[in-house]
Amino acid sequence: MQRGWWREMDLNTVLDVRDARRREPWRPGDAWLGGGTYLFSEPQPHVRRLVDLSRMGWPPLSWQPDGSLDIAATCTITELSRFGRSLPMTAAPLIEQCCRAFLASFKIWNMATVGGNLCNGLPAGPIISLSAGLDGTVLLQGQDGATRRLAVTDFIRGAGVKDLRDGDLLRSVRIPARALACRTAFRQASLYGLGRSGALVIGTADPQDGSFALTVSAATTRPFRFWFALWPTAAELRAAIDDTVRPAEWFDDIHGLPEWRRHMALRLAEEIRRELTLEEGSR
């Protein structure tokens, strides 16, 4: 199990590893293997065969004719971070900010993939936050070859719950050109100095139509994106969040109680609204 040489967990139920370039029927017990940082982190008693994506040869990042950006599922956090630091786009700082929210060692950064972070569907997944905050979509491919595209906010349905059919492969994430031209603001809160995100809030200001969008994640079981054609007041923004996020959708685990997560999300949302409003007024 070469992919897991640096991890402590052996997947002793796995009987075979298949190269994903070799097409074979999907069968019960199969699992896609990207970086494996989650797969090898805990027992996976249902897994019998790994389908390794590492030799697919997909470009980590590629520009589309309409100016949108495709991020391959196999793109690592290291590759994404390096790209973001050199990207001459207004929203570029947000890429590094979200990568830094992935509190992990360089070993994890070098192996963990964009697709894996999305497919885990964890509330604190920073690539989920990044792609939802930039109005991203995922491209899914079924075992019959058919593809479908979903907004990230629709793909993630709850804590660890995704819109994935049996054998579906998350091929890439697309960030629209318009989102990359937006001004952004980022806020993150954790119970600990180097702890998992308890609330992660992203704001974007669209220079084309002057609209404002705010994405709340980590504090909630799934990402919520709020869009305003006209800049909201503090009361309007708070009401939009409270009217949309149901009490059961504020996440509850050892990294933060729902009440605290809601409080921090509302506080950070208002900070972002003020920051981007002031910048808008100074233009």
UniProtKB/TrEMBL annotation:
<dbReference type="InterPro" id="IPR051312">
    <property type="entry name" value="Diverse_Substr_Oxidored"/>
</dbReference>
<dbReference type="InterPro" id="IPR036318">
    <property type="entry name" value="FAD-bd_PCMH-like_sf"/>
</dbReference>
<protein>
    <submittedName>
        <fullName>Caffeine dehydrogenase subunit beta</fullName>
        <ecNumber>1.17.5.2</ecNumber>
    </submittedName>
</protein>
<dbReference type="InterPro" id="IPR016169">
    <property type="entry name" value="FAD-bd_PCMH_sub2"/>
</dbReference>
<feature type="domain" description="FAD-binding PCMH-type">
    <location>
        <begin position="1"/>
        <end position="180"/>
    </location>
</feature>
<dbReference type="Pfam" id="PF00941">
    <property type="entry name" value="FAD_binding_5"/>
</dbReference>
<dbReference type="InterPro" id="IPR002346">
    <property type="entry name" value="Mopterin_DH_FAD-bd"/>
</dbReference>
<dbReference type="GO" id="GO:0071949">
    <property type="term" value="F:FAD binding"/>
</dbReference>
<keyword id="KW-0560">Oxidoreductase</keyword>
<dbReference type="GO" id="GO:0034875">
    <property type="term" value="F:caffeine oxidase activity"/>
</dbReference>
<dbReference type="InterPro" id="IPR016166">
    <property type="entry name" value="FAD-bd_PCMH"/>
</dbReference>
